[in-house]
Amino acid sequence: MPNRKNVKLPHSIHFNSGSWEALNTYLSTSGFSKVFVLTDENTNTHCLPIFQRNCTLKNFEVLSMKAGESHKTIDSCVTLWQQLSEKGADRKSLLINLGGGVVTDLGGFVAATFKRGIHCIHIPTSLLAMVDASVGGKNGVDLGSLKNQIGVIKQPDLVLVTTEFLKTLPEDHFISGLAEMLKHGLIHSEAYWQKVSNYDKHTGDDLDTLILESILIKHSVVSADPNEENLRKTLNYGHTLGHAIESYCLDHSERRALLHGEAIAIGMILATFISSVLLSFPKKKLEEISRVIFNYFPKQEFNRSDIENVIKLLIYDKKNTNGKVHFVLLEAIGSHKINCEVPNSLIYSAFEYYENF
């Protein structure tokens, strides 16, 4: 990849030093009637001051929601819709979503539906949101513990990625974002997989370059297939079982709720094992991928009952058609196959592999 200073970004995505200039230019020329900034409890404390320091517009109103996946609900949307209405928002208003994946997903949905759609900007503050949630125009909320069941696809006006915000991020949330970068490597190329695999989280060398490349990988996929008819499904690698695991843990108080990346990391190991059986994905690469993922994500325990319930949740996956559960699998790193059917017996074998690695 060329030096990031020479990379041409899509017109709607701005990176680091160019982000604040793009925001201030946009705000000064667009004539918005009102500007609102959505935060959660964490970004209100840690990220809003950075925004205020860099944004030349001082006349905006702050909206806040509770932090965490459990608040990514339609009830949170109703509260925000009511606040927007009470504060005089109209169709020429702008909502700036300052936060991680929950804030950008939910805030994008609120903006896309309020008065049939108002303008919005995403300023992702977590690694996960920078490389995944904020790019591509997917907006929505969970239905109970079921992930992203309600939503729309609508692109934000701008995505402003400023890696300064990563300094505010707890380490487990930072590592969670690496799961999506590893996924981008698996579906895109051996070269990018190796770069992320060899990233040293202690030195942080070249992190900005890796983030930018991950953004460009996702954007290229989304641009080719904006409505997820074909290629965009590959971005769900590891997510079929990963989302089911995430939902299962959210819905069972005796288990620790997993961060999105933690669940997807498990899903990628399971999907790669299944790929090795059904599509002859190389066994040595399966072992390499497993080692890399376990280096970042400690093993979780699942008993037979847990696995049975995870499998039951697969019927809610958004890629399914005609009642059939569809997986994204790999023939090799960078070579994928969509709409794969997987027998339950093989899913049990995949969990056995995960447990015994």
From TrEMBL:
Record GO terms (molecular function): 3-dehydroquinate synthase activity; metal ion binding; nucleotide binding
Record-linked InterPro entries: Dehydroquinate_synthase (IPR050071), DHQ_synth_AroB (IPR016037), DHQ_synth_fam (IPR030963), DHQS/DOIS_N (IPR030960), DHQS_C (IPR056179)
Pathway assignment: Metabolic intermediate biosynthesis; chorismate biosynthesis; chorismate from D-erythrose 4-phosphate and phosphoenolpyruvate: step 2/7
Localization annotation: Cytoplasm
Keywords attached to this entry: Amino-acid biosynthesis, Aromatic amino acid biosynthesis, Cobalt, Cytoplasm, Lyase, Membrane, Metal-binding, NAD, Nucleotide-binding, Transmembrane, Transmembrane helix, Zinc
Domain 3-dehydroquinate synthase N-terminal, residue spans: 64-175
Swiss-Prot/TrEMBL cofactor(s): NAD(+); Co(2+); Zn(2+)
Cellular component per GO, a single term: cytoplasm
Entry-linked Gene3D superfamilies: 3.40.50.1970, Dehydroquinate synthase-like - alpha domain
BP term (GO), one: amino acid biosynthetic process
Chief site of localization: cytoplasm
Domain 3-dehydroquinate synthase C-terminal residues, every copy: 177-320
Reactions performed catalytically: 7-phospho-2-dehydro-3-deoxy-D-arabino-heptonate = 3-dehydroquinate + phosphate
NCBIfam families in the cross-refs: aroB (TIGR01357)
Role this protein plays: Catalyzes the conversion of 3-deoxy-D-arabino-heptulosonate 7-phosphate (DAHP) to dehydroquinate (DHQ).
Family designation: Belongs to the sugar phosphate cyclases superfamily. Dehydroquinate synthase family.
Protein known as: 3-dehydroquinate synthase
Record organism: Constantimarinum furrinae
